[in-house]
């Protein structure tokens, strides 16, 4: 096998709490992360000439060692003692610098892809360790699903898959740097924390009402102060019938959980046509259990035939 094509899916944060700050500037978190079905397509190829070459469909996104996938490939090849070259093509759909972990997911896909391509047989745990050196969200992007993330985002407890839910993503026409949001956050001044433990129980009980009513993100106030239109987008989503609406991660993307794809699509038209938002997507939550069930069926079918 010389080429592999992968889906690098984005994420939303259903809850995000900051519980401390480390001496190195990183923050201790407790957050519930959910993979979504909006994805970048990553093609990884072995090349005869050594080195890492990158291409992507956005003119302004770096194609050199500033692309996060370069770091992923460089670390993997070094760790696996591989000297041959690789070519990475990225077709981006996930908005960039948006709170959706698009870059982290691309890096995760490259690690998983190279492991398969070169038949290196690194464990998932090992890939996640390499991923953590690239970014705090990368280990989650390797694991995927519905997950409680602690530590700086790398201590991961898988939770039962949520039933598939309709998600609308609306990104204001601005980009937000994660570092600037964490820098502006005053951890001692956080007065209201998300109900993380109750939320975990609600996921286990598939209590959708609790899940949609109790989404909470302590970074929201920080980013909204910088970009007040985020609050307006949240309110508009609720008016258009969202069961719940919140900013994802450090923002600025706002997501809404909708009772039907139709309602999400009507709201999407409003954000695109009336508000002039350029990056609006209707998608759904990624159901890992369903996916693994399908895989098992495929394996069984192959075996029987
Ligand atoms: C806020 C979150 C929530 O899921 O997501 P995004 O908004 O980026 O999607 C994450 O914590 C973002 O993780 P990620 O974007 O991978 O972080 P990194 O690349 O490692 O770090 C980017 C910047 O965020 C800060 N950072 C990151 C993670 C963390 N636990 N504490 C931090 O203070 C770091 O100081 C760094 O300057
Ligand atoms: N493959 C990539 N996809 C997205 N962003 C990338 C990539 N490589 C490097 N970057 C840089 O990383 C930064 C944030 O990336 P991204 O993961 O999209 O943010 P977030 O985690 O907030 O959604 C951007 O400034 C972008 O220029």
From TrEMBL:
**Which residue range or ranges hold the GHMP kinase N-terminal domain?**
67-145
EC category: transferase
Catalytic reactions on record: 4-CDP-2-C-methyl-D-erythritol + ATP = 4-CDP-2-C-methyl-D-erythritol 2-phosphate + ADP + H(+)
What are the alphabetically sorted keywords of the record? ATP-binding, Isoprene biosynthesis, Kinase, Nucleotide-binding, Transferase
Q: Which residues bind ATP?
A: 95-105
Q: Which residues form the GHMP kinase C-terminal domain?
A: 210-275
Q: Where, by residue number, is the active site?
A: 11, 137
| InterPro entries on file | GHMP_kinase_C_dom (IPR013750), GHMP_kinase_C_sf (IPR036554), GHMP_kinase_N_dom (IPR006204), IspE (IPR004424), Ribosomal_Su5_D2-typ_SF (IPR020568), Ribsml_uS5_D2-typ_fold_subgr (IPR014721)
Question: Which GO BP terms sit in this record?
Answer: isopentenyl diphosphate biosynthetic process, methylerythritol 4-phosphate pathway; terpenoid biosynthetic process
Recorded metabolic or biological pathway in which this protein acts: Isoprenoid biosynthesis; isopentenyl diphosphate biosynthesis via DXP pathway; isopentenyl diphosphate from 1-deoxy-D-xylulose 5-phosphate: step 3/6
Give its E.C. classification number.
2.7.1.148
| Domain of life assignment | Bacteria
Q: What Gene Ontology terms describe what this protein does at the molecular function level?
A: 4-(cytidine 5'-diphospho)-2-C-methyl-D-erythritol kinase activity; ATP binding
State the Pfam families in the record.
GHMP_kinases_C (PF08544), GHMP_kinases_N (PF00288)
Q: What does this protein do?
A: Catalyzes the phosphorylation of the position 2 hydroxy group of 4-diphosphocytidyl-2C-methyl-D-erythritol.
The family assignment reads: Belongs to the GHMP kinase family. IspE subfamily.
Q: What is this protein called?
A: 4-diphosphocytidyl-2-C-methyl-D-erythritol kinase
- The gene from which this protein is expressed is ispE
């Amino acid at each position: 096998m010389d080429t592999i094509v992968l889906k690098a899916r984005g994420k939303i944060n259903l809850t995000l709490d900051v519980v401390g700050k480390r001496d190195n500037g990183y923050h201790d978190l407790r957050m519930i992360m959910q993979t979504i079905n909006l994805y970048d397509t990553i093609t990884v190829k072995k090349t005869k000439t050594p080195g890492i070459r990158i291409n992507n469909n956005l003119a302004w996104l770096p194609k050199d060692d500033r692309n996060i996938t370069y770091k992923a490939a460089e670390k993997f090849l070094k760790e696996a003692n591989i000297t041959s070259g690789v070519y990475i093509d990225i077709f981006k759909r996930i908005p960039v610098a948006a709170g959706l972990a698009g870059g982290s997911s691309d890096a995760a896909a490259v690690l998983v892809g190279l492991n398969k391509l070169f038949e290196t047989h690194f464990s998932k745990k090992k890939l996640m360790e390499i991923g953590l050196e690239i970014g705090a969200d990368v280990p989650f992007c390797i694991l995927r699903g519905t997950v409680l993330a602690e530590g700086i985002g790398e201590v991961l407890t898988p939770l039962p898959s949520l039933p598939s839910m309709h998600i609308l993503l609306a990104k204001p026409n601005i980009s937000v740097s994660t570092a600037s949001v964490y820098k502006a956050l005053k951890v001692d001044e956080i007065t209201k924390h998300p109900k993380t433990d109750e939320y975990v129980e609600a996921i286990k009980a598939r209590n959708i009402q609790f899940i949609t009513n109790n989404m909470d993100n302590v970074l929201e106030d920080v980013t909204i102060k910088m970009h007040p239109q985020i609050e307006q987008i949240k309110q508009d989503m609720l008016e258009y019938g969202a069961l719940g609406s919140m900013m994802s991660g450090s923002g600025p993307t706002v997501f809404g959980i909708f009772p039907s794809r139709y309602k999400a699509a009507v709201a999407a038209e409003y954000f695109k046509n009336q508000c002039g938002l350029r990056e609006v997507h209707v998608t759904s939550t990624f159901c890992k259990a369903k996916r693994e069930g399908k895989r098992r069926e495929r394996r069984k079918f192959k075996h029987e035939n």
